[in-house]
């Protein structure tokens, strides 16, 4: 699944373009299956606090991160939430997008997702694997 955080709507727009199952992160969100994280960048190259809290609860299930940012914040800070999460949780930085990004970004993210996480939720995949045996 996708887990996303969006303050002003850009990341929500990206999520909706993907056409993949997912949830919006709230303060107390808990997931029990592999997910791809979509986040914006806050402060000066920082991970949004709501995402920090979410990752401290659920980071073990994170399989990759996508970060939205704005190049106006400078090269060192652009989309840096993605770099920070990737390093801290040892997961791939799948893509950085400027604001809402472009169709080619959505395609790359969708491809990563389908290869590494699967079409449905983790639970659905387990059921598929079980019935194949
Ligand atoms: C207070 C504030 C701080 C921000 N800091 C950064 C930053 O350091 N680096 C960056 O790339 N973008 C930064 N941004 C831009 C947002 O990450 C970007 O607009 C993103 O697309 C917002 O996603 P959302 O609309 O889903 O909330 C900042 C935006 C705001 C409002």
Question: Quick recap of the structure?
Answer:
With 133 residues, this protein is an alpha/beta fold.
Radius of gyration: 14 Å
Which sequence of strands runs across the widest sheet? Answer: 2-1-3-4-5
Overall geometry comes to globular
How many helix segments?
5
Beta strand count: 5
The name of the CATH superfamily reads: Flavodoxin domain
Domains (count): 1
Decide which structural class fits the backbone. alpha/beta
The average pLDDT score comes to 92
Order of helices and strands: EHEEHEHEHH
CATH architecture: 3-Layer(aba) Sandwich
- Any low-confidence stretches, pLDDT <50, length ≥5? 121-128
CATH class: Alpha Beta
Bound molecules: flavin mononucleotide
Q: Fill in the CATH topology.
A: Rossmann fold
Query: How is the main sheet built?
Result: 5 strands, parallel
User: CA-to-CA gap between the ends?
Assistant: 24 Å
Q: What are its keywords?
A:
5-stranded parallel β-sheet; 133 residues; 20% strand; Rossmann fold; binds flavin mononucleotide; single chain; alpha/beta; globular
């Amino acid at each position: 699944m996708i887990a996303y955080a969006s303050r002003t709507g850009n990341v929500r727009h990206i999520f909706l373009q993907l056409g993949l199952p997912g949830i919006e992160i709230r303060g107390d969100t808990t997931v029990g299956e592999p997910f791809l994280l979509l986040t914006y960048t806050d402060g000066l190259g920082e991970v949004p606090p709501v995402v920090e809290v979410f990752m401290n609860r659920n980071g073990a299930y994170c399989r990759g991160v996508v970060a939205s940012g704005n190049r106006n914040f400078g090269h060192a800070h652009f989309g840096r939430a993605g770099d920070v999460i990737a390093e801290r949780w040892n997961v791939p930085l799948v893509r950085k997008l400027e604001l809402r990004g472009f169709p080619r970004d959505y395609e790359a993210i969708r491809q990563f997702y389908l290869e590494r996480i699967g079409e449905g939720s983790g639970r659905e995949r387990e059921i598929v694997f079980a019935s194949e045996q």
